[in-house]
Write a structure and sequence with these properties.
The protein is an alpha/beta fold. The chain has a domain at about 10-15 and about 60-70 and about 95-310: TIM Barrel (Alpha-Beta Barrel), CATH 3.20.20.70. It is built from eleven helices and 14 strands.
C-alpha cells in the first residue's frame, strides 16, 4: 500500500515523500524591489524535508502584484534573491517549485510605483470587498478589460517569469489558476463577461488557462510545469455556475501536454465529486490540498492510501511545523499556527516555530 511517506517520481524530479508544502502568501518581500530576504531563505530551508515545496505566489510583472510586500520574478535582482532560496532548499535535499501568480483585478494602484496604473482582468468587473494595504483598507476598484490584442503579452509575462524561475534554480513552476486570481477570473462566469473567443462558452473561458499553460510548458518543459485550480471556490468574490463542466473541459485540453502535475484545492466542502472526476481524467501526478487538512484523519493521509491523490499539500500546518513530514509520521505533536503573523511582520511566526 502506498503511503504519504513513500517517494514519488514527479515527471523526472525525484521527491522523497508525498507531502507538499502548499503555496502561502506571507508578505515579507522586504528587500529592495520586492526581493526576498535572508529570512525567506531560512523559512524555506527549514521546510526542505517536504517532498515538494511550492512557494508563495510570485507576481510575473509589476501589475501582477495583488498584495503588499509580495515577491516578484520579473527583475534581475529578484532572480538573484530567489537563487539563495533554491540553493538553501537544494543543499538540504529538497525540491522547490515557484508559484507564478498574476492577481488580475485583485490589487490596487497603491501597491505599484506608478499609481496611475489600473489592474487588468478579462472584464471590467470590480471585486466586492477591500484590500488591506500599508495605508489601511482600500476598496477594490474596477479593473480595465484586457483587449484581445493585449492578451498574448500577458501570457508572455507568465512565460518570462517561468524562464526566470528556472534561471533562479527552481525545479519547476506552478501556474496559479485558483483562488480568484487572473487565470481563475477567465475561468469564472461572473468575472468573465466577454463575448469574444476568450469568454462566453466553457471552451472560450478555459482558453486563457490553456494558452498560458501551453506557452509555459513549451518554454521550460511540460515536466516542470504544474497548474493549480480550485473548482467552485468563492474566494475573492468568484462565483462559478458550472464548475462541473468547466474543469473537466480544462483538464481534457491539458491532458495531452504531459504536465508535471495538476494541483486541486478543495476550498468548498462538497466538491469531492469534482475532485474525483478530475483525478480520473488526469493521468499525471495529482496533488490535492483537501478541504479537510487534519493530519491524522481519513480525509488527509488516507487520501494517498486510497489512491485519491498522489501527493497531499498542507498549508497552515506546514507554516507552523517546519518539520511536518516527521511530525506526521510520529503522529504529532503539532505547533499551533499564529494567525496574527500570517501576513507581514518580522521573523516572529515566520522562522521561529520549533522543530521536534
Amino acid at each position: 500500500m502506498t503511503t504519504a511517506f513513500d517517494p514519488i517520481d514527479l515527471s523526472g524530479t525525484q521527491l522523497g515523500n508525498r507531502i507538499a508544502m502548499a503555496p502561502m502568501t506571507r508578505s515579507r518581500a522586504f528587500g529592495e524591489g520586492l526581493t526576498v530576504t535572508d529570512s525567506t531563505v531560512e523559512y524555506y530551508g527549514q521546510r526542505a524535508s517536504a517532498g515538494l515545496i511550492i512557494t508563495e505566489g510570485i507576481q510575473p510583472s509589476v501589475l501582477g502584484q495583488g498584495y503588499p510586500n509580495t515577491p516578484g520574478l520579473h527583475s534581475d535582482e529578484q532572480i538573484v534573491a530567489w537563487r539563495k532560496v533554491t540553493d538553501a532548499v537544494h543543499a538540504k535535499g529538497g525540491k522547490i517549485f515557484a508559484q507564478i501568480m498574476h492577481a488580475g483585478r485583485i490589487g490596487h494602484p497603491v501597491l505599484w510605483p506608478d499609481q496611475e496604473l489600473v489592474s487588468v482582468a478579462p472584464s471590467a468587473v470590480a471585486a466586492a470587498g477591500q484590500l488591506y494595504t500599508q495605508e489601511g483598507p482600500k476598496d477594490f476598484i474596477a479593473p480595465r478589460e484586457l483587449s484581445a490584442a493585449e492578451i498574448p503579452a500577458v501570457i508572455g509575462e507568465f512565460v518570462d517569469a517561468s524562464r526566470n524561475a528556472i534561471e533562479a534554480g527552481f525545479d519547476g513552476v506552478e501556474l496559479h489558476g485558483a483562488n480568484g486570481y487572473l487565470i481563475h477570473q477567465f475561468l469564472a462566469d461572473n468575472t468573465n463577461l466577454r463575448t469574444d473567443e476568450w469568454g462566453g462558452s466553457v471552451q472560450n473561458r478555459i482558453r486563457f488557462a490553456v494558452e498560458v499553460t501551453k506557452a509555459v510548458a513549451e518554454a521550460i518543459g511540460a515536466e516542470r510545469t504544474g497548474l493549480r485550480v480550485s473548482p467552485g471556490n468563492l474566494y475573492n468574490d468568484i462565483a462559478e455556475t458550472d464548475p462541473e463542466a468547466t474543469y473537466p473541459a480544462l483538464v481534457k485540453e491539458l491532458e495531452p501536454l504531459g504536465l508535471g502535475y495538476l494541483h486541486v484545492v478543495e476550498m468548498v466542502p462538497g466538491f469531492r465529486e469534482v475532485t474525483l472526476a478530475l483525478r480520473k481524467q488526469f493521468s499525471g501526478t495529482f496533488i490535492l490540498n483537501p478541504a479537510t487538512e487534519g493530519p491524522t484523519d481519513h480525509g488527509a493521509l488516507g487520501l494517498i492510501e486510497d489512491g485519491i491523490a498522489d501527493i497531499l499539500a498542507f498549508g497552515a500546518l506546514f507554516l507552523a511545523n517546519p518539520d511536518l513530514p516527521a511530525r506526521l509520521k510520529a503522529e504529532g505533536p503539532y505547533n499551533t499556527p499564529d494567525t496574527a503573523s500570517f501576513f507581514g511582520g518580522d521573523d516572529k511566526g515566520y522562522i521561529d516555530y520549533p522543530a521536534l
